[in-house]
Design brief:
The complex is a heterotrimer of chains A (about 120), B (about 475) and C (about 250). By secondary structure, chain B is an all-alpha fold. Chain B is built from 20 helices and two strands. In chain B, helix 7 packs antiparallel against helix 9. In chain C, helix 3 packs across helix 4, helix 6 packs antiparallel against helix 7 and helix 7 packs parallel to helix 11. The chains are: A mainly alpha (about 120), B mainly alpha (about 475), C mainly alpha (about 250).
């Protein structure tokens, strides 16, 4: 493994770690809301990862203006993708939260173990 | 050319609430007609392509209907139409009245998303459509608002969301290694890339994520809950079509993006295909065993889906022309057979509120058409000769012999035997027990529920007897894909 | 025990990810594949071809307009999902403040919100949406701010007040503006024989074509903004209404 390259790609490493942290939260925490927070951490880590791909040394925002050469701009595609990605993430979270509301209403708890225990009617 | 896109258009505007059922029926019917009109314009080496916004592929998004895409699109429209007709009478009995407009809206959205997913050739667009059908299917599972349904939907949502994010991560890896999002462009650029390890990790992530979506063995745990709790037409939709989208994902990644006989990555590719094949074999056996020990009809059918998905993926990853053709044929056979089984289970619930298998005694006498449809579809799931399932399994078996994979031969045969056990147990209860119940005349379901069920079950028989309609072109497609 | 197993699995995944990251193109580099393949054309010709000074907007609406249409559909389906899961609009309008306490928020909060609200809306519509193609911003961002402004308003004045000012009858047509606007703009091009989502009118060339395209893209931006914003508002309203349920879970008593 090439450690200097890895250090140079610090954003990538951090986002991979965040991804794992989120995954851990989703799998291990019993509270449904905490699971959702973990899911959101995962989402954010992927967004950080994709935006980092587009970075350029000393880059400028990709807006055509006086005195900005096109070679200086950062890559606009990842930013466009992330806009879509964020909307998707928000939608998933909205659906998940409304499921949580309903679950809390019907079961009276948000603890995954308790909900599983009360499964059979 | 705009035809390909026009196929998608009419549905977007379908949200209007008034007269939901006829309106959505119209939308689905027009779309189906447009999709079917493409048959014949596409074959193994000919595609219909359409550039949205008018930009050529590496720059814009291209819709590209290849053989696989058209096969899936025809299946989606055909089965989707039947399920929609069935929903009209059924859905009233399972969900609250005020939610019915949303049911149809979600139905149209999921239908649109699956079509878009099968025909796009852009990876990110792929992801977007995947999210649309995922979100709508979480909602459709939970739409009855029952306790169990909410729980199943949440479980499905967590697993589904994690797998979606994994797909996005993998897309990011591929994008950083190739700088492109178009599948074909990525495929050609991967051949000369300096970043092969990145691409191979992306491949692993993709396959793991789509394995969740298609409920392959170790990660199938969401499926039995979600599919058995949802309202019956929704179960049929999820089981017949939505999990096929996961299969399609695996297929697209393995063959369209990475490609077989790919010098730089062939060892990774082969070992991953091997892992998928073994996971598929395990799903065949374990899915069938779990189905045998169930007492609830819908849970049993749901587990049977796990084992049938195993057949499909085993066929696809055998890397043999016959096996591939068999796997693809099983997609057709399973979509129709499984949709039919779920619809029959729905009819039993609608008429008598019966879910338990033991309670079905003698029902074959009062509802001969329904029970007969079940028997026909079950024959296809088991793989008894004149049915479509038989053709599919025969080809998969042939593929196993071709490749000398005798372990898989045993798995396929054993799987068929086990599925015979769980299917014929139900058929036995329906027809050959409870003879003593006197004075019960014919008592069938409404026509709009009976007709789609019957059509689907006859469909399995039709594609079994007239298998030659599809097989030659499937064989061709498989040959092109495997470069044999 | 279970945690250990999970940690072990995560370690394997992590090692795999780090392995890939170690082999990835260096960050910041101008020679990475993603900067040499598709991008130069966007950056050099983005202004003429994409029709916007802000190239991100050009990419979203023009080069990858189909994706954005999918994105609009995603929030639309989220709206449908949320509304289908939660209960209907008409119930639960009797609450005087959003939280169950029944206490009105303080005068300071209400006064500040009353002043800030129009400014936020103006910022969202005028700066983010209308000017989005020339500066940072765009339809969705504007929509999010618009939604947030109404949410702030709701927090200060309570749900009944804001549902009274933005009743269901107003929101339903607005929710679909995004999709319908997109489709309409796409189909105008289709009707004249160019591809879907190509922002061109026949017989219009040169500078005039630019103007037409900018106009159409602005229409779409505003459509997305308003539609998206209203969808966010509706989702939040649906969720807030839900917190009035009585605490009587139908759990079978053991």
């Amino acid at each position: 493994m090439n450690f200097s390259r890895m250090f140079h790609n610090l954003n990538y490493v951090v986002s991979a770690l965040l991804f794992l942290m989120g995954l851990y939260t989703v799998v291990v925490k019993p509270n449904l809301i905490k699971k959702l927070i973990g899911l959101n951490i995962m989402e954010t880590s992927v967004f950080l990862f994709i935006v980092s791909i587009g970075m350029v040394e000393g880059g400028e925002a990709p807006i055509v203006a006086e005195g900005v050469k096109s070679s200086q701009m950062v890559n606009p595609i990842p930013q466009a993708l992330i806009l879509t990605g964020i909307v998707v993430a928000v939608s998933t979270t909205a659906v998940a939260l409304s499921l949580c509301l309903k679950i809390h209403e019907r079961y009276g708890t948000l603890n995954a173990a308790e909900i599983l225990g009360r499964g059979e009617p | 050319m705009p035809l390909a896109f026009a196929a998608l258009c009419p549905i977007w505007g379908m949200w209007r609430r008034k007269a939901c059922f006829p309106w959505s029926l119209l939308g689905v019917a027009i779309t189906s007609f447009l999709v079917w009109s493409l048959i014949g314009k596409v074959n193994a080496s000919k595609v219909v392509a359409y550039n949205v916004s008018g930009w050529r592929p590496p720059w814009g998004i291209q819709i590209r209907i290849d053989y696989m895409g058209l096969l899936m699109a025809c299946l989606i429209t055909g089965v989707g139409l039947m399920l929609l007709i069935y929903s009209w009478r059924y859905i009233v009995s399972e969900i609250k009245e005020e939610r019915i407009p949303y049911y149809y809206t979600l139905y149209l959205l999921i239908f649109t998303a699956m079509l878009g997913f099968s025909i796009t050739s852009d990876l990110f667009n792929f992801f977007v459509f995947m999210e649309i059908f995922s979100i709508t299917s979480y909602a459709l599972v939970a739409i009855s608002g029952e306790r169990m349904a909410l729980r199943a939907a949440f479980k499905y949502l967590l697993m589904g969301a994690i797998s979606s994010l994994t797909v996005l991560f993998a897309i990011a890896f591929l994008y950083s290694a190739t700088g492109s999002l178009n599948m074909l462009d990525i495929s050609s650029r991967l051949k000369s890339t300096a970043y092969l390890p990145v691409a191979s990790v992306a491949l692993i992530l993709f396959i793991a994520a789509f394995a969740v979506k298609s409920a392959l063995f170790p990660v199938h745990v969401w499926l039995p809950d979600a599919h058995s709790i949802a309202p019956s037409p929704v179960s049929a939709l999820l089981s017949a079509l939505v999990i096929k989208m996961g299969v399609l994902g695996i297929f697209r990644i393995l063959f369209t993006v990475y490609g077989h006989s790919f010098s730089g990555l062939s060892s990774t590719w082969n070992s991953i295909a091997g892992v998928v094949a073994w996971a598929a074999a395990l799903s065949i056996i374990l899915g069938s065993v779990m189905a045998i020990i169930q007492r609830d009809l819908k849970i049993m059918i749901a587990y049977s889906s796990v084992s049938q998905i195993g057949y499909i993926l085993l066929g696809i990853t055998l890397i043999s022309t016959r096996g591939m053709a068999g796997g693809l044929y099983n997609i057709v056979a399973h979509a129709m057979g499984k949709a039919c089984l779920f619809l029959v289970a729905g009819i039993f619930i609608y008429k008598h509120g019966l879910r338990r298998i033991e309670n079905l005694r003698g029902i074959g006498r009062t509802m001969p058409v329904t029970a007969g449809a079940f028997a026909l579809a079950a024959l296809s799931i088991v793989g008894v000769p004149p049915s479509a399932g038989f053709v599919a399994k025969w080809y998969i078996l042939w593929g196993c012999f071709q490749e000398g994979q005798y372990a898989f031969v045993i798995v396929v045969l054993l799987g068929s035997l086990l599925s015979a056990v769980y299917c014929f147990r139900v058929v036995y209860y329906m027809f050959f027990t409870g003879a003593g119940r006197p004075g019960v005349g014919l008592d069938e379901a409404p026509f709009t529920m009976l007709a789609p069920t019957a059509i689907l079950s006859v469909g399995t028989l039709f594609f079994g007897i007239f298998a030659t309609l599809l097989l030659p072109s499937l064989n061709n497609a498989a040959r092109v894909l495997l470069l044999k | 025990m279970r945690k250990a197993a999970v940690l072990g699995a995560l370690l394997i995944i992590g090692a795999m990810l780090l392995f890939a990251i170690g082999k990835m193109p260096a960050m910041n580099s101008r020679n990475a594949p993603d900067k040499t393949h598709v991008i130069p054309r966007y950056l050099e010709k983005g202004e003429e071809e994409g029709g916007a000074k802000n190239i991100v907007t050009g990419v979203i609406l023009n080069y990858r307009g189909y994706d954005t249409m999918g994105e609009v559909t995603v929030i639309f389906s989220a709206l449908c999902a949320v509304v289908a899961l939660l209960d209907r609009e008409k119930r639960g309008l009797s609450r005087s403040s959003p939280d169950a306490s029944g206490v009105r928020s303080s005068v300071i909060v209400r006064t500040v919100v009353r002043f800030a609200f129009p400014v936020i809306v103006f910022f969202a519509v005028a700066y983010m949406m209308l000017h989005g193609e020339g500066s940072p911003g765009g339809g969705f961002q504007g929509g999010a701010i618009l939604g947030a402004s109404v949410i702030v308003f709701t927090l200060a004045f309570g749900l009944p007040e804001s549902t009274r000012r933005m009743p269901l009858k107003v929101r339903i047509p607005l929710e679909s503006t995004a999709i319908v606007g997109f489709l309409a703009m796409g189909i105008i091009g289709l009707a004249y024989g160019v591809n879907f989502l190509t922002y061109l009118l026949p017989g219009v060339h040169g500078a005039m074509a630019q103007t037409v395209r900018n106009l159409m893209m602005t229409v779409i931006e505003v459509g997305i903004g308003i539609g998206g914003g209203v969808i966010f508002i509706s989702i939040v309203f649906a969720m807030m209404r839900e917190d009035k349920y009585e605490l009587q879970p139908d759990v079978p008593q053991p």
